[in-house]
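Appendix B, example 12.
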Amino acid sequence: MEIGILTFQNGYHRGATDFYPLIKWNRLLKREGYSIRFFSSHLDKKIYSSDAVIIDYRYYRMLTIHEKKYPDNTFIKEFMEDLKQHGIKVILFDTGDGAGGRQWDLINHVDIFWKKQVLKDRHEYTLNKGRNSYMVFLPEYELSKHVANENLSYRSEYTPCPEDQLHKIRIAWNIGMVDYRTFPLSNFYPVGTSRLLNSIYKLPLFNDNLDNKPIDSVFRGKIKKDKESYAYQRNKIIELFAKDKYPGVVTGGIISKKKYLEEMRESKTCVSPFGWGKSVSVISKRLLTDVC
C-alpha cells in the first residue's frame, strides 16, 4: 500500500518529529506492505499514485496563516475532494498539541481524522464553546477574561464538529517517542533532530526506582505575560508548588540542559502545564490497517 504524506516537515523543518515513527520503523512498515513517501506540495502530481494521503494540518496553516498564499482553506478542501474522486483515501492529521480541536470545518472532506489525543467525551467536539472548545483546560471565567484582554472573538470564529462526523476521529501517535537526552548536536535543533540520522535515535529510557529520589516533583516554565491563556496553568502550578506548602518541589526559570537533566533524574515526577504536547505512545499496526 502506497501512503503519501503531505507536510512541510522534513529533516530541517521541525525535524519531522510528528512523523518520526513512520521514519524510524520504515523498514518494518515496508515488510508489512506499507510504502511511505513524503510530499511538500499538493501540486505534485506524483501524490496521486498513493492509495492513501495523510495531510499534516500544519501544511495548509503554513500556506494560509503564515505565508498567506491562500486566503482560506478552500484550496485544501478542493484538493481533498479531488483525491477522493481518484479513489484515494484521505486522512487529516491534526498535529496540534491539544485534545481540543479547531479543524472541524474539514472533517466532511476526509475519510479519517487523526488526533494526537482525544477527549473522553467526544460529544464535546460538537459544542461551540468558543476558545474553550480547543483550549479545554481554561475555566469559563478565565476564558472570558482572556478573550477580553487579547481582543479575540473566538466564539463566532469556532466551527464545531458535526455530530454525524464524530465516527471519523481516531487516536494517532504523539511526538514523545524520541529520547533526545543523549542525542548528538541536541543544542543545535532542528538539525540535531534530522530524520537523515534517525538510525541513532533511541527509545526513551525508564527508571522505576523512586526510593532514592529527593525531589517530589519539578516544574520549570516560562510565563508568557502577553497571553494570559498560556500562563494560566503555569501560574496555577507555581501557586500550588509554593515552598511553604510543598518543600519537596522545584520550580523556576531556564537553567542549563545539564542541570535540567540532573533535576529530572532526582525527581519522582515532573509537571508540564501547557507544555509541548509530548507524551509517550506507540504506533500500532492497527492504526495503519485502519488507513486501508
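The chain has two domains: 2-176+280-291, 207-270. The first helix runs from residue 20 to 24.
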